[in-house]
């Protein structure tokens, strides 16, 4: 497991004699402390194993949450009741390693948690033992949604374990319709496409991945990270500055009253409160240090240069070609 609420719930239910023995397997982490689940397990004096080592003890059932490793049939068969997966989506929607991010990114209005049985060497395809849905709170971030679904998943897991034989016998196959996939987020995902993405899509992208990696764009051929994005209210949009010249996607205007950078995208404006160039800058800092000198020149042609451009990272094919050229030289 790799999420605290499930681990904590199992630990707490030892007092109800539901759990007699509990050990934890965690994947390696670059941090010395390890993943949060390892920290919790160590603090709670639970036996911890690091994958692929799983210990030699006999256990009735295995549980995984955000584990990200395929399990062999040999390992699954070690558990008389198999291995359960706590998956933060309503399977078969969003199979894969990043369901919460894709739920936010695609503007889903309903989400949930699925408790399912693991099948050997396949991700997220086993029978459903329990599934609950919840409405998506408006403007929720992936980090906030993770907390909400972790608590729901912990409660559902205990419910399944309390009636495990019955839960297993009532398991149902996943529907063949409505299957979608939630792949890992790449660096390219964080690059805003001003000409193609609407304000709503950009704000959803920020809520989905902003806590993991900042959104990126180009300013005068330099990469700039957008740290804090906000919606733009109607009173700001009435500013004549926004309509006195034809605007093109990526155009940047500083709105002094709200102290926000306004950036034009496919269908309207978004607000940016802070950015990162050489260091973190507020919108006012960026205006004073970078924007102001362009607007001082006064011409529409100069103003049009005050814009963000879409950052297009090299594709894998381009990276490979570069490596090959480097080898030849």
UniProtKB/TrEMBL annotation:
Subcellular location: Mitochondrion
Cellular component aspect of the GO annotation: mitochondrion
InterPro entries: Fmt, Formyl_trans_C, Formyl_transf_N, Formyl_transf_N_sf, Formyl_transferase-like_C_sf, Met-tRNA-FMT_N, Rhodanese-like_dom
Keyword terms, alphabetized: Mitochondrion, Protein biosynthesis, Transferase, Transit peptide
EC number per UniProt: 2.1.2.9
A matching Pfam family: Formyl_trans_N
Annotated catalysed reactions: L-methionyl-tRNA(fMet) + (6R)-10-formyltetrahydrofolate = N-formyl-L-methionyl-tRNA(fMet) + (6S)-5,6,7,8-tetrahydrofolate + H(+)
Start and end residues of each Rhodanese domain: 261-303
Major place of residence: mitochondrion
Gene Ontology molecular function terms on file: methionyl-tRNA formyltransferase activity
Enzyme class: transferase
Signal sequence, start to end: none
Protein task: Methionyl-tRNA formyltransferase that formylates methionyl-tRNA in mitochondria and is crucial for translation initiation.
Family: Belongs to the Fmt family.
Annotated PANTHER family: METHIONYL-TRNA FORMYLTRANSFERASE, METHIONYL-TRNA FORMYLTRANSFERASE, MITOCHONDRIAL
Protein name: Methionyl-tRNA formyltransferase, mitochondrial
């Amino acid at each position: 497991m790799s999420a605290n609420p499930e681990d904590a719930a199992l630990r707490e239910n030892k007092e109800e004699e539901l759990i007699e023995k509990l050990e934890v397997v965690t994947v390696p982490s670059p941090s010395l402390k390890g993943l949060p689940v390892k920290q919790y397990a160590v603090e709670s004096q639970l036996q911890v194993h690091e994958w692929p080592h799983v210990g030699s003890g006999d256990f009735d059932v295995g549980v995984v949450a955000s584990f990200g490793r395929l399990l062999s049939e040999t390992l699954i068969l070690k558990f008389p009741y198999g291995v359960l997966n706590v998956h933060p989506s309503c399977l078969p929607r969003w199979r894969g390693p990043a369901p919460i991010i894709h739920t936010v990114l695609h503007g889903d209005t309903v989400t949930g948690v699925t408790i399912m049985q693991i099948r050997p060497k396949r991700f997220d395809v086993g029978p459903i033992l329990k599934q609950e849905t919840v409405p998506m709170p408006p403007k929720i971030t992936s980090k906030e949604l993770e907390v909400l679904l972790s608590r729901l998943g912990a409660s559902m897991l205990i419910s399944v374990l309390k009636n495990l034989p019955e839960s297993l016998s009532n398991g149902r196959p996943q529907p063949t319709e409505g299957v979608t996939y939630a792949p890992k987020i790449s660096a390219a995902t964080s690059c805003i496409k001003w000409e193609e993405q609407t304000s709503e899509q950009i704000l959803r992208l920020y809520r989905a991945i902003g806590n993991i990696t900042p959104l990126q764009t180009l300013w005068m051929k330099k990469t700039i990270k957008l740290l804090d994005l906000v919606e733009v209210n109607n009173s700001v949009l009435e500013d004549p500055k926004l309509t006195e010249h034809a605007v093109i996607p990526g155009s940047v205007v500083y709105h002094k009253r709200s102290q926000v950078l306004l950036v034009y995208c496919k269908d309207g404006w978004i607000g940016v409160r802070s950015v990162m160039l050489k260091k973190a800058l507020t919108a006012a800092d960026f205006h004073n240090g970078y924007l102001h000198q362009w607007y001082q020149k006064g011409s529409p042609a100069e103003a049009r240069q005050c814009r963000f451009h879409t950052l297009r990272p090299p594709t894998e094919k381009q990276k490979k070609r570069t490596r090959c050229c480097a080898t030849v030289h």
